Amino acid sequence: ALNEGRLKFADKAKPHMKVDMDPLPTANATYVEVYDCNMVDVVDPGPVKVVPEEEYEKKVREVYPNA
Question: Which of 38, 29, 49, 14 is nearest to 59 (CA)?
Fold first, then answer.
């Protein structure tokens, strides 16, 4: 049927591929609302107490016995 010309296929135009275009275009944003704000209150530290090295090692061993 094809050779005799009785059966013909219509020319279907394929849509052009968009190769170099971004499929998900992004919108430019110039303003963003604050979602969440974490704050830390910083105060001046109190006087620092000097701890002898032996006492420091003893306290560390109490907290971390396997260290």
Answer: 49
Put simply, whether the predicted model's pTM sits higher than 0.85 gets the answer: no
Nearest to 58, CA basis, from 49, 48, 67: 67
pLDDT (tens digit, 9 = 90+) per residue, 47-59?
A: 888 999 999 999 9
Amino acid at 38: N
Amino acid found at 47: P
pLDDT tens, residue by residue, 2-41: 667 777 777 777 777 766 766 666 666 677 777 788 888 8
- The secondary element (H helix, E strand) that includes residue 54 is helix 53-63
